[in-house]
Known about the structure:
By secondary structure, the chain is of the alpha+beta class. The chain is built from two helices and five strands, in the order ββββααβ. The chain has a five-stranded antiparallel β-sheet, with helices on one face.
Amino acid sequence: MHFIAVDAVSDNGKERVYKIESDIEVATLILNKDSLTTTINGFNDTLKYLMSKKFVDDLIVDNYKKNPKQKSFAYGRG
């Protein structure tokens, strides 16, 4: 179905850690709030078969820039 669900797990002021979930797996993503860069731990199959890393990065960074207080969101048909 190609969906991604994103939930903030922790936030230390400089970095926000998200749990990201796709159709096929769960992983963590760390967003550096200063540089707006991301690091994904896991998600290998999703990035290979369903979505590009650029798409996932852009989705999370753009959502953070639009509403930094939002802690969870979803994209796609799940």
